[in-house]
Design goal:
With 319 residues, the protein is of the alpha/beta class. It contains ten helices and 13 strands. The strands form two sheets. Strands 1, 2, 4, 8, 9, 10, 11, 12 and 13 form a nine-stranded mixed sheet that branches. It has a four-stranded mixed sheet with strand order 3-7-6-5, with no helix packed on it.
């Protein structure tokens, strides 16, 4: 797009992806179909690679006290119960501290239920509004039933797959509405490609459908990126730069080349060896946590001035 006027592809992709809600399962397939139709309509060649992954399918979940039910959402990847021996944890704390422990979690920055972290033990997320009721309860019982199901997911490769100078990554799956995380990154990359197709001669754009959830232990997120890393190890090793576009448009753009957020956004196997050429284009993490993995992550949060800013910075990185 000319950032001063035409951002039609960005708007279209954002509208259609966020309308799907949580982009997993059937909704993820619809997201892929929309992205591929945008590429086809704009005569942008692409390759689709399908791979298998295990995903959670939540069947039943509940959280009750002696005074009644507490609204909750599932964050456990295994079935089971949570009783009075439960731990109440903040999801702002790294999940490695409670990855295998039955618990109830809450995101204190979010006004609604936010499924910020997942675990390999029975776990449920509640809103901060429900904290008082839970803390005052004498008896609690959480129930979770989830099935581990093998599913197909897709990775869309656009551009030079043989010897790309730079490889750009984004994901289109989501937990919650996912406007910032990460319809925004996917839409921005599609807009950039449509604006300057010549970029595809020397660069490779990777749109992945399995970043949020998997049964990879202990790092359940980022499986699609690791799948690409394994298959395209030579291209990754020879590329001059690896650029990750994730969670933009809701706050001023940040370009990060070091720090813990890099490992959260791009948890590939050889991240320590490749760290010097990894760049993350994102926005303020603390601001994101107010809507992270919730249905508050909506289109209304995305601001044009921040998208224009992110696009210009991405162009600079590709020069």
């Amino acid at each position: 797009m000319k950032t001063s006027s035409n951002n039609s592809i960005f708007k279209t992709v954002m509208k259609n992806l966020t309308a799907l809600g949580t982009r997993q399962g059937a909704a993820l397939k619809k997201a892929y179909s929309h992205i591929s139709s945008v590429l086809t309509k704009n005569q942008i060649p692409f390759r689709t690679e399908t791979y298998r992954t295990a995903l959670p399918v939540w069947k039943k979940w509940s959280l009750k006290t002696e005074k009644g039910a507490i609204p909750c959402l599932p964050t456990g990847l295994t079935s089971g119960t949570i009783t009075n021996a439960y731990a109440l944890v903040s999801s702002l704390v790294s999940s490695r501290y409670f990855l295998d422990m039955p618990h109830v979690n809450v995101n204190p920055k979010s006004s609604i239920i936010s499924r910020a972290n997942f675990s390999f033990a029975p776990s449920l997320a509640i809103s901060r509004e429900s904290l008082k009721a839970l803390c005052n309860a004498r008896n609690i019982r959480g129930e979770l039933r989830v099935e581990k199901k093998m599913q197909d997911t897709r990775q869309i490769l656009i551009g030079n797959t043989k010897n790309p100078k730079k490889i750009l990554f984004s994901h289109f799956d989501s937990v919650g509405t996912g406007a910032a995380d990460n319809a925004s990154g996917t839409a921005l990359m599609l807009q950039l490609i449509s604006e300057d197709p010549q970029l595809l001669n020397n660069n490779l754009f990777v749109l992945d459908g399995n970043e949020e959830l998997s049964y990879d232990y202990p790092v359940y997120w980022g499986r699609g990126y690791r799948n690409f890393e394994k298959k395209y190890a030579r291209q990754i090793s020879k590329a001059k730069r690896l650029i990750v576009v994730d969670c933009i448009g809701y706050a001023p753009t940040e370009i990060l080349s070091k720090g813990p957020i890099i490992k959260l956004a791009f948890p590939i196997q050889k991240i320590n060896l490749l760290a010097k050429k990894i760049v993350l284009i994102t926005s303020d993490y603390d601001t994101l946590m107010g809507v992270y993995h919730s249905d508050d992550d909506t289109l209304s949060r995305i601001k044009k001035r921040f998208i224009d800013e992110a696009l210009e910075k991405l162009k600079m990185l590709l020069k």
